[in-house]
Amino acid sequence: MKAFVDTNILVYAYDRGAGDKHVQAQRTVSQLWEESTGVLSTQVLQEFYVNVRRKASRPISITSARSLVADYMAWDPVVNDGTSILEAMDAERHYKISFWDALIVVAAQKCEADVILSEDFSHGQMYGSVLVHNPFEVES
């Protein structure tokens, strides 16, 4: 089962100041590495780099951030090309979500992910064949 990782999950995994979210995200990302089931896009890597450097409660160095991005290249990131942008425009309108979220959905569909791991999307929402799962949501 492929899991597309949204930026917020990746950032929490490396932001030691994020408390319980850091612990859960780190556990989630570690499991994806172990199972070789994690996928992401160039958009996620770009946002991750900026956010762990500038917006994290405990920012990391440029060298560390670059090293992490280089490591995640092993996940063979989806590259958002012109077709992806046009498809995201259609998804934005169809699902009534932001363009940036639509680009995540399109990338997840493009790599045939089963699930999008994110806290920004609605937990349990389906986008075509891709289910959203918030790893911080308590299952009842």
Using the coordinates shown, work out and report the CATH topology: Rossmann fold
Number of strands: 5
Output the radius of gyration: 14 Å
Strand content: 5-15%
Number of helical segments with 4 or more residues = 6
The CATH level-2 architecture is identified as 3-Layer(aba) Sandwich
Characterize the overall form. globular
Q: Termini distance?
A: 22 Å
Give the H and E element order. Answer: EHHEHHHHEEE
Q: In this structure, how is the largest beta sheet organized?
A: 5 strands, mixed
Average pLDDT level: 95
Spatially, the strands of the biggest sheet line up as 2-1-3-5-4
Which homologous superfamily in CATH is the superfamily? 5'-nuclease
Total domains: 1
**Unreliably modeled segments:** none
User: Structural class, judged by helices and strands?
Assistant: alpha/beta
Query: Share of helix among residues?
Result: 40-55%
CATH class term: Alpha Beta
